[in-house]
């Protein structure tokens, strides 16, 4: 990842170039360019490469003057963050306000078991993607299978993912608690359990200044030197005070506060490891705490992982532009918007599958709805054997219920049963009691 060029202080540019020719500020083409670039919220490293109607430094200085006049602040001891809200960011926040914290209107609401399964699946997606962002090496399919079957982690990467999953579940349990240093330490201890070289670093602030954010392939290429470890307790106390203050003189939008919490953990880097995963978990926690209930269904880290280059750049843009975190805020809001869009698509797909399962129940009265759902799921993942434990976890039922359902499907000829050692597996092979119409319906669902 390339480190962006740091611009000259805009006051120096103003004194060197603009004050000598004040008519520049009244040039319509210049004004339009400044307005457009600020709405896009470009960094100097982008502006200097654009075709502009004036010296790029002049355009940049005017952009900065306009930003400064409208900026808001969040101060944590000697760390002063600034940000602006663009039209696009306000639009996204309004959409999230009215959807993620309001009522998601569904023509055909998903059945409660289906929604519970989706919550579990979303937590898994979030945990897996957040760990993969920090270097966990495993496929999503293998990781999900481990979590669903409650298999013990076999590698450090799997342990990282398992810890993340338990942390995400814990975050849901404590969303009514205030932000405290103790809470941050407890979550870090949970997220780094048995993954650090020195186990005593888990749940403890770093005690030296050797931790840096560097390129994994070029160790000498340092992207960020965190503040002194001696200041960490003070920063964390101030951060908690900021998060808990709901009646301050200056209103800060809850989603912006969640993103600031995310940024500050990454910027201060209070721990020797696990800072990124903790930062994203805390952002998720504060969104839930602020009644954005739909975040429970949104795998935001999965979207961030798909745009990991822009994620790193958003951090660097903020650091190289006088801690203007608008770049970071805009990036995270766009990821939230995309995650919500993914949720809506998922729900529409599940509604179609639910209709198909209901039709199957109608044509096969010997099946209950859950058995139809299990069968549909197995057909969609044709060729993959499943265990009783995996079905119990995925469909949120006890072991005996899952076993009864699978055996019932087997006895009626819908699926096959195989034994490997002492373990029993079930699979759909295409030869079953389903009629051609049922198979066509489920096959079409799988394609969609």
How many domains make up the coordinates?
3
The strand order across the widest sheet is 5-7-6
Radius of gyration: 26 Å
Give the termini distance in whole angstroms: 36 Å
Q: Tell me the major beta sheet.
A: 3 strands, antiparallel
Overall helicity:
55-70%
Under the CATH scheme, which architecture of the largest domain would be assigned? Orthogonal Bundle
Q: SSE order in H/E notation? A: HHHHEEHHHHHEEHHHHHHHEHHEEH
Would you write up a description of this structure?
This protein is mostly helical. It has 3 domains: 10-70; 75-344, Fic-like fold, CATH 1.10.3290.10; 364-447, Winged helix-like DNA-binding domain superfamily/Winged helix DNA-binding domain (Arc Repressor Mutant, subunit A). The chain is built from 19 helices and 7 strands. It has helices at residues 10-18, 28-40, 44-47, 56-70, 87-99, 112-133, 140-149, 156-173, 181-191, 232-244, 254-268, 275-289, 300-306, 308-319, 326-363, 369-380, 388-394, 399-411, 436-447, and strands at 72-76, 79-83, 213-214, 222-224, 386-387, 416-420, 423-427. The protein has a 3-stranded antiparallel sheet with strand order 5-7-6.
Features:
Fic-like fold, mainly alpha, single chain, 3-stranded antiparallel β-sheet, Arc Repressor Mutant, subunit A, two-stranded antiparallel ribbon, 3 domains, 19 helices, 448 residues
Layout of strands and helices, then pairs:
Elements: H1 10-18, H2 28-40, H3 44-47, H4 56-70, E1 72-76, E2 79-83, H5 87-99, H6 112-133, H7 140-149, H8 156-173, H9 181-191, E3 213-214, E4 222-224, H10 232-244, H11 254-268, H12 275-289, H13 300-306, H14 308-319, H15 326-363, H16 369-380, E5 386-387, H17 388-394, H18 399-411, E6 416-420, E7 423-427, H19 436-447
Helix pairs in contact: 1-4, 2-4, 5-15, 6-7, 6-8, 6-13, 8-12, 9-12, 10-11, 11-12, 11-15, 13-15, 14-15, 15-16, 15-19, 16-18, 17-18
